[in-house]
Design goal:
Layout: E1 24-28, H1 32-45, E2 48-52, H2 55-64, E3 69-73, E4 75-76, E5 79-80, H3 81-89, E6 97-102, H4 107-114, E7 118-121, H5 127-136, H6 159-173, H7 179-195, H8 199-214, H9 219-233
Parallel strand pairs: 1-2, 1-3, 3-6, 6-7
Antiparallel strand pairs: 4-5
Length: 239
């Protein structure tokens, strides 16, 4: 199935206020908080969104249908988003626009080298930036005609989605004997906390990442992160 065929239907023609109407965007993102932000951005823009939380899930989606746009987080639980980008960049037929996404500064060059058309830097809050990035990388025959509204609007994801991410992090941090899982947990929490502007948790997660990289003991850093995560779950800190 090719979801981009829906673009040609009269009732899916983009409008000035909803310039992505008719597009289906597959978002490959493991954070519920970040995905909630993407859902709101798509909703405000007129696009339909489908979500995959890992490479395996994304591959199942792509075996069934071809979205108009593919947005891939660079750090996923079962591998690097760069691998999926590279596969889809060389696929035939190709997705109309492939975008990498991350909060890490170094990730943009990796995404582009893998074949991404563009890149979205987290946190993604600006509606106009999101729309412009997607539209600027679509093929010419997918570009909406005429003027469009540039809405200077920022979206605010539901804090409940942040708590869902914290609950997921608890499960990851319980794997105290698995350094690979703890390293992923640190990466996951660093990205989620940065998106939510939770600076204390982001810094603690960064410390756990450094400890994983050094190969030394992880007990103290893991305990610090776990304590902050539990604190957020108990809602003693509002984001």
């Amino acid at each position: 199935m090719d979801d981009s065929d829906l673009f040609s239907a009269p009732y899916h023609v983009p409008t000035a206020a909803r310039p992505l109407l008719g597009l289906t965007i597959l978002v490959v993102e493991d954070s519920r908080y970040a995905c909630e932000a993407m859902r709101l951005l798509c909703l405000r823009s007129g696009a339909r969104i489908r979500r995959a939380d890992c490479l395996r899930s994304a591959e199942r989606h792509l075996q069934i249908y071809r979205p108009s746009v593919l947005i891939v987080d660079m750090g996923l639980p079962d591998g690097s988003g760069a691998d999926l980008i590279e596969d889809q960049a060389h696929a035939t037929p190709r997705v109309g626009a492939i975008l990498g996404m991350s909060g890490d500064n170094y990730a943009e060059s990796i995404a582009l080298a893998a074949g991404a058309d563009g890149f979205l830097a987290k946190p993604i809050r600006s509606l106009s930036t999101f729309q412009e990035t997607v539209l600027s990388h679509l093929p010419a025959d997918r570009q909406p005609r005429g003027p469009r509204l540039l809405l200077d609007e920022e979206i605010c994801p539901d804090p409940i989605a942040y708590r869902d991410d914290m609950a997921h992090a608890v499960d990851l941090l319980n794997e105290v004997s698995d350094r690979t899982v703890l390293n992923y947990a640190a990466q996951f929490l660093r990205g989620v906390a940065r998106a939510a502007e939770d600076h204390a948790l982001a810094e603690a997660a960064r410390g756990l990442s450094r400890a994983c990289a050094r190969g030394g003991p992880l007990g103290a850093d893991t305990a610090r992160v776990a304590g902050l995560v539990q604190d957020r779950l108990q809602q003693r800190r509002a984001i």
